[in-house]
Amino acid sequence: MVTLQLNNSSPADSYYQIEDRIPPGFSLVRQDQEYYSSERTSGYEARSYYDDRAVFFVQGPAPGATIRYFLRADLPGSYQAMPAKGLFMYYPEIYGST
Asked: In this predicted structure, what is the pLDDT of residue 11?
């Protein structure tokens, strides 16, 4: 399980796009509905998966929000994760990263 914690100081009616790069040797678990529960929610409204990244769309998180998704380790080895990037959907020049 990958957990991304968002900290927000902007207005609550904003729309956000969160991009997280997928490390080599891992693949996304696309059918992951059974892994969520009432205590452990996904935290996003919509998502798009690509070969190299996962993109999540969030509407106006309060001062903090948590996004969760699942990866499967496919190849043994040591890997480094690239930083995640968060940006306003309609103002991409305003962004932050991990």
From this structure: 60
Quick check: 1 and 54 in contact, CB under 8 A? no
CA 46 vs. chain centroid, Å, equals: 10
How far, in Å, are 14, 34, 40, 84 from residue 37 at the CA level? 26, 8, 5, 24
CA dist 98 and 85 (Å) reads 7
Residue partners of 76: CB distance under 8 A and separation at least 6? 25
pTM: 0.79
Sign of the four-CA dihedral 38, 65, 48, 71: negative
Confidence tier at 3 by pLDDT (50, 70, 90): confident
% of the chain beyond a pLDDT of 90: 16
59: how many CB neighbours lie within 10 A of its CB? Answer: 14
- CB atoms closer than 10 angstroms to residue 73: 11
